Amino acid sequence: MKSLLFIISLFLTCSLQAQDSDTKTILFFGDSITAGLGVDKSQAFPALIQDRIDSLGLNYEVINGGLSGETSAGGLRRIDWTLQRDIDIMVLELGGNDGLRGIDLNSTKENLQQIIDKVKATNPDAQIILAGMQVPPNLGQDYTRKFETIYPELAQENNLFLIPMIMDKIGGDEELMQSDGLHPTPEGHKVIADTVWEALNPILN
């Protein structure tokens, strides 16, 4: 009897491990927008994407790799640790804090490029979606314009999927933005989730 129970237990364990191994991983790697600063983590757009995936019965697990205050340089420093786990899809949302701090544009682009390179080196088959960001015009029109070109340039140079402006549909709306004018409300995260889904859905299917 004990032997039979052991065999059943072993079978169930192996089955669960096989099931887990079939689950694909989507990594959202970003700053406070991805992390969901100011809202419950369940209300942040990566969690909303997971809810939608689950409702469709798709075998994907979402990992929220957002960190408030993160710059492209900070993301580059921690990407190796994050990539200890294999990923199938990555949504890269970084650079906004670089723009707010007036960081050299070449440095921002190079940091993002190195993150992309590391993902491709460790997960050659992974699909990467690059989320474009905007910055306020207080640093001058020239800086603002050149900042926005970083993302389409990287997408073209690396053959990536591009979300031109991840927060394009929520800026200036008090219902969608928190009082700081920088971070989305729960309703704003729903709009971002819809925007991300437009890029993600064709890859999942």
Walk me through this protein's architecture.
The protein is an alpha/beta fold and 205 residues long. It has helices spanning 2-22, 32-35, 45-55, 72-82, 96-101, 105-122, 141-158, 186-204, and strands spanning 24-30, 60-66, 89-93, 127-131, 161-163. It has one domain (23-204): SGNH hydrolase (Rossmann fold, 3-Layer(aba) Sandwich), CATH 3.40.50. Helices cover 53% and strands 13% of the residues. Strands 2-1-3-4-5 form a five-stranded parallel β-sheet, sandwiched between helices. Helix 7 (141-158) links the parallel strand 4 (127-131) and strand 5. The protein starts with a helix and ends with a helix.
Q: Can you tag this structure with a few keywords?
A:
alpha/beta; five-stranded parallel beta sheet; globular; 205 residues; single chain
Please state the average pLDDT score: 89
Helix-strand makeup class: alpha/beta
Task: Please give the share of residues in helix.
Answer: 40-55%
Helix count, per DSSP?
Answer: 8
SSE sequence, one letter per element:
HEHHEHEHHEHEH
- Given as residue ranges, the uncertain stretches (5+ residues, pLDDT < 50) are 1-19
CATH-derived topology: Rossmann fold
Radius of gyration: 19 Å
- Main β-sheet, spatial strand arrangement: 2-1-3-4-5
Report the sheet-strand fraction: 5-15%
